[in-house]
Design brief:
The chain is built from three helices and eight strands. It is of the alpha+beta class. It has two domains: 44 residues, no CATH class; 76 residues, Sandwich (HSP40/DNAj peptide-binding domain). The strands form three sheets. The protein has a four-stranded mixed beta sheet. Strands 1-2 form a two-stranded antiparallel sheet.
């Protein structure tokens, strides 16, 4: 077995574990035959911010409870481009996925997949007992007392 370095073009949008065929760059054929093809298995380094789902890029975007409850316009990062503005309708649940067409992985036909932005509530970690934020959350708890978000879940579970 020998070792040598070659240059190869890796097409945009290649997936982790995908094989790429490089014609004529493999081992020489028997009895002076022409060289075979070289197959290269690609390993894509994970990105710190973006994930991948087929031809779509994924990103988890932290949002506040008020942005989800009241609605907002938020900036969402894109891979290799400026951030895009996504409109969050009032009453959006945490975990909702927003699709931004044309901001994903390049397909073989040259078009782009989508960016799938999942909004996730960022819970405040450092609320001191005299803060306005803590007081506002206590007021929210009192205002929504009697509303059990698990009621429907529990009802459905008892029906089985």
């Amino acid at each position: 077995m020998s070792s040598r370095t070659i240059q190869a073009r890796i097409p945009a949008g290649v997936a982790d574990g995908q094989r790429i065929r490089i014609p004529g760059r493999g081992a020489p054929g028997e009895h002076g035959g022409k060289a075979g093809d070289l197959y290269v298995r690609v390993h894509v380094k994970p990105h710190e911010v973006f994930g991948r789902s087929g031809e779509n890029l994924t990103v988890t975007v932290p949002v506040t409870i008020t942005e989800l409850a009241l609605g907002a316009e938020i900036k969402v990062p894109t891979h290799r481009g400026p951030a895009v503005t996504v409109r969050i309708p009032a009453g959006t649940p945490s975990g909702q996925v927003f699709r931004v067409p044309g901001r994903g992985v390049r397909r073989k036909d040259g078009t782009l997949g989508a960016l799938l932005a999942t909004v996730e509530v960022s819970v405040p970690q450092n609320l001191n007992k005299n803060s306005k934020a803590k007081s506002a959350l206590e007021d929210l708890r009192i205002a929504t007392a009697g509303v059990d978000p698990r009621e429907e879940l529990l009802r459905k579970a008892r029906q089985e």
